[in-house]
Amino acid sequence: MIGFQRKETHNQGDMPFMDITIASFHPNHWPSVAEIYRMGLLTRQATFETEVPSFAQWDQKFHKHLRWVVLREGAVVGWAGLMPVSARKVYAGVAEVSIYIHPDRAGLGIGKRLMRHLIAESEEAGLWTLYASLFPENTASVRLHESSGFRKVGYREKIAQLDGRWRDTVIYERRSRKVGV
Predict the structure, then answer these.
(1) CB within 10 Å: which end of the chain, N or C, has fewer?
(2) What CATH number was assigned to the domain covering residues 5-175?
(3) Model pLDDT, residue 181
(4) 129-134 vs 94-101, strand pairing mode
(5) Alpha-carbon gap, residue 47 to 159, rounded angstroms
C-alpha cells in the first residue's frame, strides 16, 4: 500500500497550472528521492551534508507518516519530510522541514503546493511548530518559507563549515493556527 495520494490538477492562486500528485513516500520512491537530494547537495545551498545517506540512514531521520513525494506523469519531481527536532516529549509537536524539488521543475509552483500539503498534514498529525534552518543565499527556499507563513526567528553566524568554508544559517519557524493554540 502506497498510502495517501492527492491529485492536484487545478491552478491554486499564484501557481501555474500543472497536473501533479502528492503521495505518501514509499520505499520504491527512494532512488528518485536520493537523486533529487544528490542534486541539492551539489548546489552547496541546500544542506551541510555532502553525501547522500543510505536509505536506512535517511529513513531513520524522518517521521514515517510525514514524508511525501510529488509525482508528475509517474515520475518523482520533488519530496518533503518532517524530522523530529528532539527526542524529548515536550518537543513532540515540533518538526524540522526538509523539502527538495528537482531542479528541472523549479519555479513551477511545485514547492508551494508541496509545502501547503506538508503544513496541512503536519497539523492533522498534531504538530504545532515547523522549523527550518536555511542558508541565506538559498533565496528560493527563503521565499518559499516566507510565503508559506514562516517567520525568521534567528540567525546563526558561522554555525558550521561546508567545504572548509564557514557558513551562516537563518532560522525560520511556522506556528500552527490550529494546533496548540
Answers:
(1) N
(2) 3.40.630.30
(3) 83
(4) parallel
(5) 12
Cβ contact 22:42 at 8 Å: no
Distance CA 71, CA 3 (A): 14
Collapsing DSSP to helix, strand or coil, 155 comes out as strand
Task: Provide DSSP, 123-145.
Answer: HHTT--EEEEEE-TT-HHHHHHH
Residue 19 has pLDDT above 60, yes or no: yes
CA dihedral of 23, 84, 160, 54, whole degrees rounded to 10: -50
Task: Give the long-range contacts of residues 53-61, CB within 8 A, separation 24 or more.
Answer: 55/27, 55/30, 58/30, 58/33, 58/34, 59/27
Residue spans per domain, the chain = 5-175
The strands making up 75-84's β-sheet, listed across from edge to edge, are 5-8, 20-24, 67-72, 75-84, 94-101, 129-134, 165-175, 151-162
DSSP 3-state of 106:
coil
Query: Cβ distance 128 to 93 under 8 Å?
Result: yes
Phi then psi dihedrals of residue 146, to 5 deg: -60, -40
Burial class from Cβ neighbours inside 10 Å (0-12, 13-18, 19+) for residue 144 reads buried
Task: Give yes or no for residue 82 having a pLDDT over 50.
Answer: yes
Could you tell me which residues are beta bridge partners of residue 7?
Answer: 21
